[in-house]
Design a protein that fits this description.
9-stranded mixed sheet, 310 residues, 9 helices, Spore Coat Polysaccharide Biosynthesis Protein SpsA, Chain A
Length: 310
């Protein structure tokens, strides 16, 4: 199956991009990863060669990263569906499916699983919310009322809420990207978004790309194939990927592991996976640096067995 992977980053998230790429490659992915970015190329991509419309890094036998400089003046969280549309239109029209991963995800699964998965429908993982936004949840019903007032009939009321940090879309279902992007624009222009810190006001849309994705699923009938929050290691028994997401989550490349452990927060599974995939095939960090980090992980894990935040 001919597929492509994409992600978006700016600032120090390039550390996550490199580790994401390593984790995908080591679990069997062979192909191209399209990387939209602002600012500078990562230090580990200094040998990338200029091509028509992108810079290409041959990271390993069978793995290339193609960097596209993004000029759009918008938050990357708003830009995901537009980026995927652009890739299909201008860069990889031959792809049968495109997968988007946030740059703070580490892959755990053999790649073959993803290719089989996306054939069954839009591939999604549930979010880590402590409730599921069931079909009769007042926020879900408010979304329905709001979007129907805007001329989009609600075709299904879902029982679960999905994280926009990962999505896999087969070409047969590519038109959902246009709907997702249109809703993002609608909500922005209508000033429907509110900040997390603001009063909870109608229509209760505050997670940007994520709420828009979930509402797009409500006003469409694209087939879906979904896994629970374990798909991103938000709960136990995961096997797919590990996502360092959440308002109080420190990204693995920024985390002071010892200080966190002394404060009652031991290393997460994502932390351990991040440093496992930090050197090969892309040398995001030196082997010496990673060896020190892995020692620190063991010490922090030991501390965590005695100190736990209540």
């Amino acid at each position: 199956m001919q597929v492509s992977i994409c992600t978006l980053f700016e600032g120090d998230y390039h550390y996550g991009v490199g580790v994401l790429a390593n984790s995908l490659y080591q679990r069997g992915y062979r192909g191209t990863i399209w990387v939209g970015y602002r600012g500078n190329l990562p230090p580990w991509a200094s040998t990338a060669k200029q091509n028509e419309g992108y810079q290409e890094l041959i990271a390993a036998d069978g793995l290339s990263l193609r960097f596209i400089y993004i000029t759009a003046d918008t938050y990357f969280s708003f830009y995901k569906p537009e980026f995927m549309q652009t890739l299909w239109k201008d860069y990889c029209s031959e792809a049968e499916a495109i997968f988007y991963f946030d740059p703070d995800i580490v892959n755990r699964s053999l790649w073959d699983f993803y290719e089989r998965w996306v054939k069954r429908g839009v591939a999604l993982c549930e979010d880590a919310w402590p409730y599921f936004l069931t079909s009769n949840h007042p926020i879900r019903l408010a979304w329905r009322d709001y979007i129907e007032d805007k001329g989009y009939p609600c075709l299904r009321l879902l029982e679960r809420y999905y994280n926009a940090g990962f999505v896999g879309i087969h070409k047969e279902h590519a038109s959902i990207l246009s709907l997702w992007a249109t809703l993002i624009t609608l909500f922005r222009d209508d000033d429907a978004y509110m900040s997390r810190s603001s009063d909870h006001r109608y229509p209760y849309i505050n997670l940007h790309d994520q709420d828009a994705l979930n509402i797009a699923l409500m006003v469409s009938t694209y087939p879906m194939s979904t896994v629970g929050p374990e798909g991103m290691d938000f709960t136990t028994r995961g096997f797919l990927m590990s996502h360092a997401a959440g308002a109080n989550i420190v990204k693995p490349w920024r985390k002071n592991l010892i200080a966190k452990a002394l404060g009652g927060v031991p290393p997460s599974h994502t932390d351990k996976l991040f440093w496992q995939y930090a050197t090969s095939p892309i040398p995001v960090y030196s082997h010496h640096y990673v060896a020190r980090k892995q020692l620190t992980l063991r010490i922090a894990s030991a501390i965590g067995r005695f100190i736990r935040r209540s």
